[in-house]
Amino acid sequence: MTIDRIILAVAGAFILISVALAVYHSPLWLWFTAFVGLNLLQSAFTGFCPMAMILKKLGKQPGAAF
């Protein structure tokens, strides 16, 4: 699995988990959803993603974006 696919999978999981937590626990979890979305948006334009840097250091195979 490439870095790109790992990042998309983790971001999708974080969004689904935070939405579920917002529905069943507290609406404040929607701030975490917004944070993940904004991070995805800025990485699309800048190419900077902290998780991608960590995965590179762990030896994961780079994809087209990172």
In a few lines, what is going on in this structure?
With 66 residues, the protein is mainly α. Helices cover 71% and strands 0% of the residues.
What does this structure look like?
By secondary structure, the protein is mainly alpha-helical. It has one domain (about 5-55). The protein is built from three helices and no strands. α1 packs antiparallel against α2 (about 30-45). The mean pLDDT is about 95.
The string of secondary-structure elements, in order, is HHH
Rg over C-alpha atoms, rounded to the nearest angstrom: 13 Å
> Which range does the strand content fall in?
under 5%
Structural class, please?
A: mainly alpha
Q: How large is the count of helical segments?
A: 3
Number of domains: 1
What's the N-to-C terminus distance?
Answer: 13 Å
Helical content stands at: over 70%
* Number of E strands: 0
Shape descriptor reads elongated
Which stretches of 5+ consecutive residues score pLDDT under 50?
none
Largest sheet: none
Q: Can you give the mean pLDDT? A: 94
